[in-house]
Amino acid sequence: MTTKKPKPSPRTPMPEQPAAVRRANFSEVTLGYDLSMAMTEAARCLQCKKPACIKGCPVEVNIRDFVGHMAKGDVDAAYAAIKATNSLPAVCGRVCPQEIQCEGACILGKKGEPVAIGRLERFVADEFAARSACEQITGQAACAASRDGLSVACIGSGPSSLTVAGYLAARGIKVTVYEALHELGGVLTYGIPEFRLPKAIVAREIAALTDSGVTFVTNWVGGKTFTIPELFEMGHKAVFIGVGAGLPRFLNIPGESLIGVFSANEYLTRVNLGRAYAFPDYDTPIYPGKKVVVLGGGNVAMDAARTALRLGAEEVRLVYRRSKEEMPARAEELHHALEEGVILECLCGPLAFVGDERGYLTGLEVQHMCLGEPDESGRCRPCAIEGDTAHIPCDLAVVAVGTGPNPVLLNATPGLEKNRRGYVVVNEDTGETSISNVFAGGDIVTGSATVILAMGAGRRAAKVIAERLVGHG
Amino acid sequence: MPTTILAKRRLIPGKTSELVLDAPHIAAKAQPGNFLILRVNDHGERIPLTIADADPEKGTVTIVYLVLGKSTALLETLEAGDAILDVCGPLGAPTHIEKTGVVICVGGGTGIAAMHHIAKGHARAGNHVVAVIGARTKELLLFHDELSAFCHEVLVTTDDGSMGRKGLVTETLRDRLAADPTVSEVVAVGPVPMMRAVAETTRPFGVKTTVSLNSIMVDGIGMCGACRVTVGGQIRFACVDGPEFDGHQVDFGELCARLGAFRDQERVSLEKFHECRCHDHKKA
């Protein structure tokens, strides 16, 4: 008789607001572990000799160590292990696509469910939030003494720039972050809704950076209020471009300028940055939609659909050209959206927006599709089923089909090399652009990607900047 | 950092005021045609306003607004010495200005103030600048003296004939174009129906016509697409591709419809604002 290895115990469930309750509020959906849940979950970790999870993390968090410390209830040691390579753990624990990164590589996942690494990371970061800023960023009780005359500028205040700022501040290098909008955080603030990433969490990470000596300047637009050569004239020794990819893509189909058709960026910016969910207490208005369609299948589409529900829509349909399996959204976001009542209209390609004589949206014409052979992205190509079209009545449509590079800063920077698609070209080992001591990372290099990949790029550039300015990374 | 209002001039009491802002970093860069985005307080929305003038030496920029909705009504409550929470700029592509000869700058309503900066740029470039400005009545006519200081001709029309010629700016414009084949460009800034009428007036003459579009904006830096306009059949963003476009190519009907997208919410917001103010007065 052979002894079978026992099946791993199931993951510790994450408490969350019931779907029926949360679809009417903007509070965070998931509520976080308590200490005993975190210890129980961490105890599932096998402490592999060759941990695959760490390779799956773009910023190489020492997951085995941090989970090991957590299993013993040692939050301090767990935090130090995470913070050694990740400057925004409370954010990453909430928005990283863990299922395709660390958790996707977890050995436990082969037989059962992987360790809930993201949830543990979030727990540790939240537990630690009360600590002083320097300890949060550097793991040291006191910040590194500031080194005279060494200053670096970051353009944009999203995850890549915040990572650069945290890394350099911990090494005594003065950093000034220039943000075009009136609030800091980039996509973490204007793009990701409160119910997925509370603004208080982002504010906490930024406050920690401020306390460690990072200067933030809002309402300064790269390429308009200042140019990159001017940053060097102001005394900055290196510049990091982390402006993201904010130019909204449209479908270029008839009727796209009808009233009621919005880009996801506009829709989410009104709600998240402008707090339009609290209109008229806040002055930014939002267009009310009863029957809503959201076009796309990524995280941004999920955010828009779930936002529309919370703003009182009766019906929200997600129109996507491929099938549910191909949706690029994080599995957890799709799961939450379905629980909240978002309806999927898969294998549907938009043909035209239809409106009334006053220019208001009344519906969307769609083409039913089937899946063909895989294309260059490896996903099955959607093919039109000739003659099979349908009409979806709607009064609000949100186009969430991706973004392109915003040209404002790039066009104002002569000598900055861009690729065919308009993104910044960098040296893959250093993150340096075609201009000496000007670095770039995040979506403005890769196109729309994830927070954690932007942070990985920030970390790589920051290492090189530190090596150049102080001789070691 | 909040931006201090250095001076306020009530141009039309309760309706239109001019603010001079202490904003050296914007003044240093502001070109004719640029605009800025401001947010009055932390509950405020981002609103775009054209830069009517800039003085890089003094570090000031001038804006002129028409009280239309809640945000401009709130702005109107501020006085010299008060601060505006966020001011961001200069934004938008500057006006294309080169020495071409005779340029007619047409302005209507608050648009005259915005047109002023553009006309100044053309005068500096050595063009013969003709200002054609109009209002319902004499008291509502803005920037007449300012324009007279550098424009070679200032042609005034009023609806009631209280100043200048009685009638519309387009009639004066048509006569001026008919009399002078050397006009190289017409620039129009004002309400959408006026800009549309100007474009139709100049079309038969084949004169290059530039309009400055006031579409709804949120970020103003090319990120949200709220301000999209159709120009020559193409989607363009007024905030970064504009705000100035070829008036003969603009789909004014669509622009007009899109400007009304938030009319219901704007009404709610303004009514609530007046109620609050009313309440304050009762308390006081």
UniProtKB/TrEMBL annotation, chain A:
Signal sequence interval, chain numbering? none
In terms of domain of life, where is this protein from? Bacteria
Q: Which UniProt keywords apply?
A: Oxidoreductase
| Domain FAD/NAD(P)-binding, first and last residues per copy | 151-458
Task: Quote the InterPro entries the UniProt record gives.
Answer: DPD_II, FAD/NAD-bd_sf, FAD/NAD-binding_dom, Helical_ferredxn, SudA-like
Q: Which residues form a coiled coil?
A: none
Q: Which EC number(s) are documented for this chain?
A: 1.4.1.13
- Enumerate the Pfam families for this protein: Fer4_20, Pyr_redox_2
The residue ranges of the Dihydroprymidine dehydrogenase domain are 22-131
Query: Which is an annotated GO molecular function term of this record?
Result: glutamate synthase (NADPH) activity
Which NCBIfam families does the UniProt record give? gltA (TIGR01316)
Q: Report what the protein is called.
A: NADPH-dependent glutamate synthase
From TrEMBL, chain B:
Q: Where is the signal peptide?
A: none
What cofactors does the UniProt entry give for this protein? [2Fe-2S] cluster
Binding-site residues, [2Fe-2S] cluster: C224, C227, C239
Q: How is the cofactor bound?
A: Binds 1 [2Fe-2S] cluster per subunit.
Which keywords annotate this record? 2Fe-2S, Iron, Iron-sulfur, Metal-binding
Q: Where is the FAD-binding FR-type domain?
A: 1-97
Q: Gene3D superfamilies in the record, alphabetically?
A: Nucleotide-binding domain of ferredoxin-NADP reductase (FNR) module (3.40.50.80), Translation factors (2.40.30.10)
InterPro entries linked:
Cyt_c3_hydrogenase_gsu, Dihydroorotate_DH_Fe-S-bd, FAD-bd_FR_type, FNR_nucleotide-bd, OxRdtase_FAD/NAD-bd, PyrK_electron_transfer, Riboflavin_synthase-like_b-brl
Output this protein's name. Sulfide/dihydroorotate dehydrogenase-like FAD/NAD-binding protein
Species = Desulfolutivibrio sulfodismutans
Give the lineage. Answer: Bacteria, Pseudomonadati, Thermodesulfobacteriota, Desulfovibrionia, Desulfovibrionales
